[in-house]
Amino acid sequence: MLSEEYGTSRNTINHMVSRHKSKFSPAFEAKPILPAMSRKKTTEETTEKLLQENRELCHRLEQTHLKIESYEIMGDILQESYGIDLLKKSAAKQSLDLRNDTQE
After folding, report:
1. Helices (H), the chain
2. Spatial distance between the Cα atoms of 68 and 60, rounded to a whole number of angstroms
3. What residue spans define the domains of the chain?
C-alpha cells in the first residue's frame, strides 16, 4: 500500500489524491470555444442537392413516358402493317413431340 510505502496515513494519501483530481479535473480545463456552425449553409446545400435530384428524376420520368409512348406507337404500326399484336399475351405452346411423350 502507498501509505506504508511512503510512511503516511491512508487519509493523507486520499486527501492528496482528491486535491490532485480537483486541480486537474477535465471538467475545469479551459476548452477553446468553437463558433457555432452555420445551419443555413448546410440547409441551402441540402436543398440544392434535393432540387437537383428532383430535376434528374423528373427528366428520367419524362424519358420513360416517351419510351412507353414510342413502344405503343411501334406496337400499333406492327398491328396495322403486319398483323402482329405485341400486347396480346399468348400462353406458351408445347410442341407435338412433348405432348405425345407426356401422354404415354
Report:
1. 2-6, 10-23, 39-82, 96-103
2. 12
3. 44-88
